[in-house]
Amino acid sequence: MEQNEHNNHSGIGPIAGFVYQDYFFLFKLLTLQPGEKVSFEMFEDVGVEGNEKKIYYQQKHTIKGSMDKPIKMSERDNDLWKTFSVWIDILTKKGTEQQQRDWIASSRFVLLSNKDACNNVLWKKIQEFQKNEAKYSELESFIYELYDNTSNSVSQDGKETLESDKKKKIRMLIEYPLRKEFLRNVAFEFKTDNDIIDDIKHNIRFQHNTPEINVHECMITLLGELRYSYKDSIQKGKALEFDEESFDKRFGSYFNIYKKRKFVPINRNIEIPKEPLKLTFMKQLIEVKYLKASDIDTVRDYAKYRIDFGNSYNHALKFTGEQGRKYFENEVKQRWRYHFNKENIDIEEDSSEKIILHAARNVVLGVMQEDLKFEEDPLTRTQSNGCFFYFSDGERPKLGWRSDWKNKYNGIEWITE
Question: Is 254 strand, coil or helix?
Fold first, then answer.
């Protein structure tokens, strides 16, 4: 898939185009029908091969315009004629004229773009011809007029008039012997990025019975797995292709996860605070000598665990509400309290700081071995650790390690009943 000429000067243009392509590829995979195969970069950007018909999608994306006012695709649009020339070039390499004719008859060529072609006269005339509402001669005459009225180029010395690249592409169609058959099998689809995203989410929600609250996370996970799968096809030098069975084998487990799970990891785009050592839970860990401030990698990991759990926990509470929160937090509290009471039972007012810190460190060691559950969803060890970090953080932490943690860190009584 190519960007239009304006986008090639911008780093964001090609990236936006590839993202658009990924979204569409995922949508076609989600809507696979029995007997179909969907491929990526075999003959076109995305190809759908069924029992009777092959559909080849060429995608053209622009970052010009906006969602509310998409840019228009004119009759002389570079992307339009570039697409036609690519398809004709592919067809001419398919063998004899009869072989090309057979190929066209069993194929559909679709230009997919976020440019709006609703007022494009050429596309209207193509559609009228396909519906037998107008004669082919009328469409052909219009294409000849386009060619005649398209500007030429001028040689570098300014002395000679040359056929422009755009006119060459139009002439390529005019001179193609099977242009009539070809034009009967071309189509245009207008979809913005948001249109495709909405289609994906609708499919995940209603065709794969995913709770609405998990739909976005499911989509992001599927996209990540899809992009990872590109690596396999690149290494093998083959097109990436899926049928129903292979798609289900690679992606099916994710649907099962998001159908059932309430505690879904929301761990993307985690930003570590610039000064993580100022976080309350970090101060508590460092004071009891469970963590060294100089161990930057572990500091960053622990900050990530804490933030990751907080994001996922707040998301999960949308499922279970107040009752779910109370049940889970009561369980966490009891697990912490067991270790806290066990290790601090012998601490007295006159206990030395060394003994207090030793007991507190053992509390941390104990809770770090706990594997928690959110209702029926088991949490990973890092999620469980992040949970204890989460509740020992903030201006009013709910738990701590040393016997006098409430006074030292402005702790609050943890009400879970």
Answer: helix
Q: How many helices and strands (H and E) does the chain possess?
A: 15, 10
Instruction: Express each pLDDT in 265-309 by its tens digit.
Output: 776 667 899 999 999 999 999 999 999 999 999 999 999 999 999
Q: Print burial letters for 148-186: b (CB count within 10 Å at least 16), e (below 16).
A: eebeeeeeeeeeeeeeeebbebbebbeebebbeebbebb
For 17-68, the pLDDT digits (tens) are 889 999 999 999 999 988 899 988 744 567 888 766 899 999 999 987 666 6
CA distance 105 to 10: 39
